[in-house]
Each structure stands twice: as structure tokens, then as C-alpha cells.
Amino acid sequence: MSTASPRTLAELLSAGAFIQAGIDSDFRASLGEIHGVEFNFLSAGAEQPPTEPTGPAEHASASADGNGLEVNQLVEVRVHTPRGARDFRGVRLAVIEDETWHWATSATNVYDIPELKEPQPYSEYLVQAARCIVGGLPIFIAEQDGDASTASPMSARRAAIAIVYEAGALPPRDCIMAGIEAYSGLIDERAALLGLAEKLQLTVQINGDYMQLFDGTTARFSPMDSIDGSRLISLNGSAWGLSPYHVLADSHYMAVEQQLFINGRYPGLQAQLDLDRGKAWLSNQDLGFEADAFVIATTTAQEFTWAWADRNLEGSPAAAASHNLHRFGADQAIPDLVRPRLPLSWAKQAALPHLAMPILGVFSLTSVALDAETTALVLVSAPELSLPEPSEAAIAATLAVAVPQGVDEKRARASYARLRGIELPQLP
Question: What InterPro entries does the entry give (predicted)?
């Protein structure tokens, strides 16, 4: 499927995001930790195969823009890792001088995007854009000696160098999940999936909010008119992938009964959090008791951040269990579990705290203010919170709370019956 050429920098970044993330994952797996990189910049007349990452190209030559920069300058790159040294061919795409990015490649000529035509203030977005125009290949930033006509005596010249790296097979699932974790909230994920499909030469069938790739991968997106934009909400193949709605079904009735129990047994229950111990003190005006505390996320007025991605919680025992949410999301291909952060509107719509409950096996949720702007969402567990033996009244009150839209009521009832050790009549 051929997609329209990107017309803006944002469209370019979106189109290349998933393939770029997939190549990054493959590159890390292939090389491991990088200990050092050496660069040898070749002159225009050097005997070097005239190949750049985008395909056949002419030998490097002086540009006609008056900057005196060689276009498509070839570079020899040696990468040092614990597994030994790896040599790559490379090409210089841009020069960075005085924090200004100067393009130095003919690969930009096929795009009618202003930021690819003129010098720009240096930013990471330009590095990503440079990767996009060469098919997502890795880029290194290296120091390069300037000359009297181009180098400022006050700043070193740096070069953005793409290396010719041939990735192995790139499964769409791996590219998509890596891309979501790396670029969530920064890209148009529909455009990213179309860009990936075109790069991998996979046919795409679009049916409303669903996209199906020829390899059997099916992606479901939230509606285009969703608050804060559309996003990928589920991903599955013929033999992999778990719908987040199935996970919500497994949590719904248990969470309802747990909350009904707490409201009845411990009205007005408040929590104080001990992050260092992974404990919470739960109390009301009549009593108090200690509980195990599992911080799953933090929220501000606009943003939801999973605890595994919150730098302020790094190393905290209270946040340790949240890494299981990330692992589960990666294993089961659940996009919202690998997004480091989301708009709060997305998190509420997706009921993310309830998504965490059956994964961790804890269904009691509370919130604790960490500071004036930040609130921790905490799952708590203690003997005092254990549900009593099920009664007809409790079961009836629990089942009276309707499942959220999109959740399979039959699955929700079956999960509740299994977890509570009861039998429920089958729905018609």
C-alpha cells in the first residue's frame, strides 16, 4: 500500500516512528552495549563504494548552497561493544554548528517540507527526521573538525551520521509495541502503522477504526474524534494478543464488590503512604491498620504516568510491582500498558487502574497525594480488606453494576464466579 508523501515534519516523524523503533530494538539486540564509536570522514575523492543508506548515490560533492558543505559525505564507522568491533559504512546527513542544524544530504530533495530545506535550530526532532528520510537507520552524532569558512572558533562542529545497518526480520508486532513505548503522545499512530506497512511491503485493509495487515496483525484504534486524539488501543495476531477489554472484564465485578465492602465496613477510609517500605496506613475515625501498598501510577491535572516510568519513584519498593504491568503489556501486546504516560483523559476512558487489578491480583484501589500537583494511585492489600464469604445480597448488589462499554458481560460474570468460587446462571 502506497501512502501519500509526508507534507509536514510531524507527518514525516509519524510515518517513520514504528519502523525506526523496530530497527532500534534490532540494533540493540545485535550489538549489545556500545562502549565507543570511531569515525573516519572520507574526502570526496576517496575510493569508497558510492552507496548511502537510501540507495545508489553520486560521490560526495560540494553543495551549491554557499555553505561549503560536502553533500552525502561518506564516513567509515567502527562501533566497539563487548562482542567486539563492528564496522559500518555511513553517510553524513547534517552538520550541527552553533546549535544550528545544516542539512548536508540530497535525501531531503524528495520532500517538500520547509524544515528539510533550510538551517534549523538544533533539536532531537531533527535527528528523528533525519532517520526518517533514510528509512529509520541508526544515527550517531560525532565531532568533526571544521574549516575556516564554516567552523566557528567558539563551538565545535558536529555531524549527524547515518550508518548502513541491515536489520533482521522486523515483526510488525515488535515494531509497533516498541514505537508506542518510545513515541506515545508524539505521533499519529495511524500514520505510523501505515508507514510501517509500506516499509515492510505489507498490504493494509482499513475498516473504520480497524487496520489489518497482510501478515494477520489486527490493530484497533480509538475513534478519530476521541478527546486528545486517536490512539492504538488493541493489537493482536492469529496466535497472540490479549484485548484490554478482556482484562477489564476480569476485574470489573471483583473491583465493584471490593469497593462496596470497603464503603460498608470502613466508611471514610483514608491512606498514608510509606514509599520506602511499600506500605500504607489505612484509617478512619474508628480504626486503622497497615496494608501492602502497590503504587501503579501517578496523576497530575492533565497526565497519567505509570509508576514504572515515573523517575520520582525509581527504586521505590512501593513501585516495584508496577514493572509487572509493563511486562504483561509487552507479553500480551496491550498498548496502554507500555505507554510510559498518557493524557489523563485517555487513562480515564480506558479505566487503566482497573486494567492493573487482575494482573497484580489486588482489587482495592485508593489514592494518596504525593505533593500539591501529584497523586499516587495505589492498590492495597491486607487481611482486613479480604472479602467475606459471598452472600446473596452482596452478589446481587455487585452484579447490579453494569459493565463498562465494550466489556463482555459474560466473561465478566465468569471471571467473578471463578474468583469468588460461586456459580452464576448463564446469560441468554
Answer: DUF6882
Strand partners, 94: 103, 160
- Per-position b or e across 27-36, b if 16+ CB within 10 A of its CB: beeebeeeee
How far is residue 312's CA from residue 307's CA, in Å, rounded to a whole number? 9
Q: How far apart are the first and last CA of the chain?
A: 43
Rounded to whole angstroms, the Cα distance separating 395 from 397 reads: 5
pTM of the model: 0.90
Q: Which residues contact 202 (CB under 8 A, 6 or more apart)?
A: 1, 172, 196, 213, 214, 215
- List, in order, residues 6 or more apart from 135 with CB less than 8 Å away: 16, 19, 53, 54, 199
From first to last of its 428 residues, the chain has per-residue pLDDT tens of: 556 789 999 999 999 999 999 999 999 999 999 999 999 999 865 554 434 444 433 333 434 444 567 899 999 999 999 999 999 999 999 999 999 999 999 999 999 999 999 999 999 999 999 999 999 999 999 999 754 344 444 468 999 999 999 999 999 999 999 999 999 999 999 999 999 999 999 999 999 999 999 999 999 999 998 888 899 999 999 999 999 999 999 999 999 999 999 999 999 999 999 999 999 999 999 999 999 999 999 999 999 999 999 999 999 999 999 999 999 999 999 999 999 999 999 999 999 999 999 999 999 999 999 999 999 999 999 999 999 999 999 999 999 999 999 999 999 999 999 999 999 998 88
- The answer for residues whose C-beta is within 8 angstroms of residue 103's C-beta and 6 or more apart is 93, 94, 116, 117, 119
Q: 311: helix, coil or strand?
A: helix
